[in-house]
């Protein structure tokens, strides 16, 4: 997967980064840690501009974030629950997790949205309770932008720094990328396999 992601970035440039980050917010097992680190890596090689890659990556993530917000807002709690209970396994989320996110959201509001953007899994899920409780869209967008921009900047900078710091950075990054993707795939399969038992608890 790492080679495929890198090739899409090389061939597609900024548009490739944009598409990958949209996909990452829709299908979490495609990790932003890999996408933006590789984008930073390519920027350090002179093929991209790091600031532009960060802006484009943030924009792609925000498309996905906003999509989930409006889907949840349109559905509402009553119409969302049957969808989650029927298909939640494939989204790796059950209704109890939606309720937990909603309670935390009502307590911490915008801060929860901003901080949620740097947490695995929650980066996508946090849009759902925000839409369900009908958080004002300008506030949702602002807090999401702040958290997403910060996270994307950190990841892109890590990739850029690695290429300048380590002689064997490319080989090391490939190992880390493989490990990250492997962990995400195993986590996803584990969530799918154990989802029903979590529902019964």
Question: Can you describe what's shown?
Answer:
The chain crosses the membrane at residues 12-30, 50-71, 140-160, 172-190. One of its GO terms (cellular component) is plasma membrane. With 201 residues, this protein is mainly α. Helix content is 86%, strand content 0%. The chain starts with a helix and ends with a helix. Residues 197-201 have low confidence and may be disordered.
Q: Helix proportion of residues, in percent? A: over 70%
Shape descriptor reads globular
Structural class: mainly alpha
* Amino- and carboxy-terminal Cα gap: 35 Å
Q: What's the overall average pLDDT, rounded?
A: 79
Number-wise, the strands total 0
Poorly predicted regions are 197-201
β-sheet strand percentage: under 5%
Helix and strand arrangement:
Blueprint lengths: L1 H25 L5 H13 L5 H42 L3 H22 L5 H4 L1 H6 L4 H29 L3 H32 L1
Helix pairs in contact: 1-2, 1-3, 2-3, 2-7, 2-8, 3-7, 3-8, 4-7
List keywords for this structure.
mainly alpha; globular; 201 residues; 8 helices
């Amino acid at each position: 997967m790492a080679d495929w992601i890198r090739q899409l970035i090389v061939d597609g440039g900024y548009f490739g980064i944009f598409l990958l980050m949209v996909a990452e917010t829709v299908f979490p097992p495609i990790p932003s840690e890999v996408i933006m680190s590789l984008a930073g890596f390519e920027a350090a090689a002179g093929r991209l501009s790091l600031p532009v890659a960060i802006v484009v990556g943030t924009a792609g993530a925000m498309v996905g974030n906003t999509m989930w917000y409006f889907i949840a807002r349109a559905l509402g709690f009553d119409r969302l629950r049957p969808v989650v209970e029927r298909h939640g396994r494939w989204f790796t989320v059950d209704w109890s997790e939606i309720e937990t996110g909603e309670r935390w959201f009502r307590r911490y509001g915008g801060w929860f949205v901003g901080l949620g953007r740097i947490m695995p899994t929650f980066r996508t899920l946090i849009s759902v309770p925000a839409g369900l409780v009908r958080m004002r869209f300008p506030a949702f967008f602002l807090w999401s932008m702040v958290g997403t921009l910060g996270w994307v900047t950190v990841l892109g900078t890590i990739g850029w720094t690695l290429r300048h710091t380590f002689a064997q950075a490319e080989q090391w990054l490939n190992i880390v990328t493989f490990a990250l993707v492997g962990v995400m795939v195993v986590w996803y399969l584990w969530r799918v396999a154990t989802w029903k038992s979590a529902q019964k608890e």
